[in-house]
Design a protein that fits this description.
This protein is an alpha+beta fold. It has 5 domains: 5-89, no CATH class; 114-188 and 359-498, Rossmann fold (3-Layer(aba) Sandwich), CATH 3.40.50; 208-349, Galactose-binding domain-like (Jelly Rolls), CATH 2.60.120.260; 517-637, Immunoglobulin-like (Sandwich); 643-733, Immunoglobulins (Immunoglobulin-like, Sandwich), CATH 2.60.40.10.
């Protein structure tokens, strides 16, 4: 359990979350442990079984409570039983650890990593430039981090793979013989802390140098809180982006992390202005910081517990002029268990259309190449969620400049969370590879050159603008004041449901993903068509590869199910990953389990703390994304109210010249319930159908031949009343 509060209670002290929801409603049988330093009291009776990393409360204090009777021994026994049961279940007591190091098949593990990433890579856009094939004589691979994959963020647990493959290496290995692969960084490499702050983009090392003339800034780190004493480290940094957070231990960024015992830092640089115009500087951070331009203080902040961003007034600077920038920063909080937030970043806003020299050099290389591939990524980790949806480190500007220089620009994204793509209509293709692991470079390259057809699908919605989230009422926690109270008002309208409800068109919808071929869907069928809402349901539909190459389609099944307000809400109910050869067709069957963790037919009732599957008509549809579905088939969960069909008079009597009208009354066997819906009548080989009005219907049958005719009546049921059948007789004389 984490540090945060949920509905006013600390997560580690929430009986509702840990006992009522997790154990009783969701059936969790394991044990619950705290995040590091997340406990605030002894509360095992509320569901927390283990405290990490050390017994701050679950030690002497808990022991004293047991001895004086405040906490019962039965509560302790329950927690211990949960912990030991899981340990025994996983063989911790039965399996001895090996006495020597075991050989690891690194090659096999790398192959698995690559296969997983190849299946995850999602083609978001393609104007026909992909796959690259043999047509490209020269490829510009652009990005400061093309030599390293986006693997994972950091926390108290960090893994270091035996090897890793970046995009540049992958493209060089995969490119056909004779293709000239060249590269340019375009920006500085990512730093730990990039994307965390709300200020402007950081200054590039291509526009600033140290007092000694090295590209970047001179950084002095101090163990004191006030820049006194001798620096513990002096070195050149690419810019002023300093993250002193304790989890600043990452193998995923190229830049060196600050000293672990640093409490204050001073950075100094000489800025060379790229073009005449108005510039605005921003200073962001946790703690206290000051920006001086030419020894004049222009911005300052003091924020010990939450992030603050301050900006200068616009400053007119002449192109080619030089100015001294100095940032002085120190931590102001107390270091609790090494988890104090500390950091600072200097950013700036340039005049429109003004690019730093490294961006200009990358655009020039792209203009001189047949194809440009831009690798853009983010860095996310524990305590380092993105502060906004923009790509950090001027990568949006880089993509725009490269796309303007070369229409055959392919953007390769490696982001763990959604980002904005304001340049998407100016580029030829966009791939998303997420945090793809150590073999991400080879996996991307095989997709780019067509050795693998992309088959990944977006696990989230990518908005068109950040304002769309504001329309949905989704708040940015980083922009909330120091109380950090985040109201969640979306209800069941999360993600794509909220976008559809508000009529918003995202950049890329949930479930979206293209391939190098095309697929056609047929209408679905549902088996059984009726049920109690707890047994498995099979949705079947024909799927055809209509393209000229083999491919994999992720066929998605959505269900429209009622929510607590009685409004139908669309949910992803299931999916199937299907490989088809060109022209091949197959009937795809997706089995939906209503009792699965996602409870696709149900909603959560807060009043009863239970899943509810209402009697209703559920519509299943199929397609390739949440915004690209077709066909529909119904599944009915009948209500508990039965009914009988009554017709009067009985039997009908007339002659061959009589135009018969059959009066029908569907009477529910529960008081106050009215039957609505359709009644079907079969007489001989003729079928008649009519719609009830307040449970009644007069159905014209017309003239009938002489004789005795049996009439079969069928009521199709409704959301309130079950199906019913009946029988009547018509006697026709000559």
């Amino acid at each position: 359990m984490l540090v945060q509060k949920i509905n006013g209670d600390y997560a580690c002290e929430s009986d509702y979350v840990q006992n009522q929801l997790l154990r009783e409603a969701f059936g969790f049988e394991g044990f619950v442990q705290s995040d590091y330093l997340a406990t605030h009291s002894t509360a095992p009776e509320l569901g927390l079984d283990m405290e990490l990393p050390a017994p701050l409360y679950y030690g002497d204090e808990l022991l004293a409570e047991v001895r004086n009777g405040e906490t019962s021994i039965e509560v302790i026994d329950t927690a211990v039983t949960r912990i030991l049961r899981v340990m025994f279940e996983n063989g911790l007591f039965d399996t001895r650890l090996p006495e020597s190091d075991q050989e690891i098949d690194y090659a096999a593990n790398a192959a698995v990593s690559q296969e997983v990433e190849e299946g995850a890579i999602t083609l978001l856009r393609n104007d026909g430039v992909l796959p690259l094939g043999d047509a490209s004589g020269s490829i510009a691979v652009i990005g400061a981090d093309v030599d390293r994959p986006s693997r994972l963020g950091g926390s108290s647990f960090v893994t270091y793979p035996s090897d890793s493959r970046g995009l540049l290496e992958g493209i060089r290995d995969q490119a056909p013989e004779g293709v000239d692969v060249r590269t340019a960084p375009g920006t500085d490499p990512l730093a730990s802390g990039d994307g965390v702050f709300l200020g402007y983009q950081p200054l590039s090392s291509s526009v600033q140098r140290t007092p000694d003339g090295e590209p970047g800034v001179q950084a002095e780190f101090y163990a004191s809180n006030d820049l006194t004493g001798d620096p513990i480290v002096e070195r050149t940094e690419l810019d002023t982006t300093v993250n002193l957070f304790a989890f600043n231990v990452y193998s995923d960024v190229a830049r060196i992390t600050p000293p672990g015992n640093a409490r204050s830092v001073r950075t100094t640089s000489v800025l060379t202005v790229p073009s005449t115009g108005e510039y605005t500087f921003s200073l962001s951070g946790f703690g206290a910081g000051t920006l001086l331009v030419d020894d004049r203080e222009v911005a300052t902040f003091d924020s010990p517990s939450y992030q603050t961003t301050v900006a200068t007034d616009p400053i007119t600077l002449e192109g080619g002029s030089e100015h001294t920038l100095r940032v002085e920063y120190h931590v102001t909080g107390t270091r609790v268990g090494g988890l104090e937030r500390g950091g600072v970043q200097l950013g700036w806003q340039t005049p429109e259309g003004v690019y730093s020299p490294d961006v200009q050099e990358a655009a020039a290389l792209a203009a001189d190449s047949d194809v440009a591939v831009v690798f853009a990524r983010t860095f996310e980790g524990e305590g380092q969620d993105s502060a906004d949806l923009n790509l950090p480190r001027n990568q949006d500007d880089l993509i725009a400049a490269v796309a303007a220089a070369n229409p055959n620009t392919v953007v390769v994204l490696a982001t763990g969370a959604p980002v904005l793509t304001p340049w998407r209509d100016q580029v030829a293709a966009v791939l998303q590879g997420y945090q793809g692991g150590q073999e991400q470079g080879d996996a991307f390259a095989r997709v780019l050159f067509g050795a693998v057809s992309p088959s990944g699908r977006l696990p989230y919605t990518m908005a068109d603008t950040e304002e769309q989230y504001e329309t949905l009422g989704v708040l940015n926690p980083v922009e909330i004041d120091e109380t950090l109270d985040v109201p969640f008002t979306e209800g069941v309208y999360l993600g794509y449901r909220g976008f559809e409800r508000a009529g918003l068109t995202p950049a890329f919808a949930f479930g979206h993903g293209l391939t190098y071929t095309t697929f056609d869907y047929g209408d679905p069928t549902v088996t059984p068509a009726r049920g109690n809402g707890s047994e498995p349901i099979t949705v079947a539909f024909p799927l055809t590869n209509t393209g000229d190459r083999a491919g994999t389609e992720v066929a998605q099944v959505y269900v429209n199910a009622p929510n607590p307000e009685g409004v139908s809400v669309k949910k992803l109910a299931g999916f199937a990953k299907v490989e088809l050869e060109p022209g091949e067709s197959r009937t795809v069957e997706v089995v939906i389990d209503p009792e699965s963790v996602s409870h696709p037919l149900s909603y959560w009732d807060n009043a009863t703390s239970a899943w509810v599957t209402p009697a209703a008509r559920y519509t299943f549809s199929v397609g390739s994304a949440s915004d690209n579905i077709s066909g529909a088939a119904e599944f009915v969960v009948p209500p508990e109210v039965d009914a009988v069909i009554v017709d009067a008079p009985r039997p009908l009597v007339g002659t061959t010249r009589t135009n018969f009208t059959l009066p029908v009354y569907v009477r529910p066997l529960a008081r106050g319930v009215v039957a609505e819906g359709t009644v079907t009548v079969k007489v001989n080989n003729k079928t008649f159908e009519g719609t009830l009005r307040r449970g009644r219907l007069n159905l014209p049958l017309g003239r009938l031949a002489a004789g005795v005719h049996t009439i079969y009546l069928s009521y199709g049921g409704s959301n309130a009343v079950n199906e019913a059948t009946g029988r009547s007789i018509v006697i026709v004389r000559r």
